[in-house]
Amino acid sequence: MVLKQLQSEIILCRKCPRLVKWREKIAREKVKRFVDCEYWGKPNPSFGDPKAALLLIGLAPAAHGGNRTGRMFTGDRSGEWLYRALYKTGFANQAASTARNDGMKLTNCYITATCRCAPPQNKLLPSEIKNCRTYLQEELRLLKNVRVIVGLGKVGFDAAITSFKQLPQTTLERLPMFGHGVEHRLNERITLLGSFHPSQQNTFTGRLTEPMFDAVFHRALQLIGSK
Tens digits of per-residue pLDDT, 51-64? Predict the structure, then answer.
């Protein structure tokens, strides 16, 4: 299987009835500010550079972000922070992403998620995470050049560890603990970095500041350059 084929499979996925019902309900009912938009309303495919050294693992699409636009971290406040950080460090060609056809291109970076469908209240059930894990594991197999993984939030961080543990190349002897800026070697080739998620809950309260967030990607650059 190749990445393009995998993403086509993801878009058609209906494994989780609760998430299917929610994402389609949101796409029909919309919100006032996006009432004239045609919502995507399907699982979000991953996207980016198939030769990427940097892999980002988020939580799931936002109800009126990725579930509307069809691309992860596109059209929501979390994405505003993420793409600014990627642009500053040379991983993205522009500092903002508002639609699938807005010209955003990633260089040496690939974006995926723990789950591909928007969940109610941004909360995933363990069964939903498990259902989507096979897609993430297949991406880890196919992305041969990954040297650094950034887990955005504890859910993304844990998804990286759980998925990696079940692959033959892991050398993990203990479960790494999540924290902002933590570093853990998954094996001799790949380093996992932790970052608070750029959600409004974190950015509005000051738990995550822009310099803190940017520092994670500057560190990713350093690690990629040293490998």
Answer: 999 999 999 999 99
Question: Average pLDDT for residues 120-125, to the nearest whole number?
Answer: 94
Among candidates 109, 195, 111, which has minimal Cα distance to 152?
195
Q: Are 109 and 56 in contact (CB under 8 A)?
A: yes
**Whole-angstrom Cα distance, residue 165 to residue 99?**
34
Domain spanning 3-226 has what CATH number? Answer: 3.40.470.10
- Interval 73-97: pLDDT, tens: 999 999 999 999 999 999 999 999 9
> Which residue, 3, 56, 41, is CA-closest to 213?
56
- pLDDT at 167 exceeding the cut of 90: no
Closest CA to 90 of 77, 73, 108: 108
Residue 96 sits at the vertex; the CA angle it makes with 123 and 213, to the nearest 5 degrees, is 60
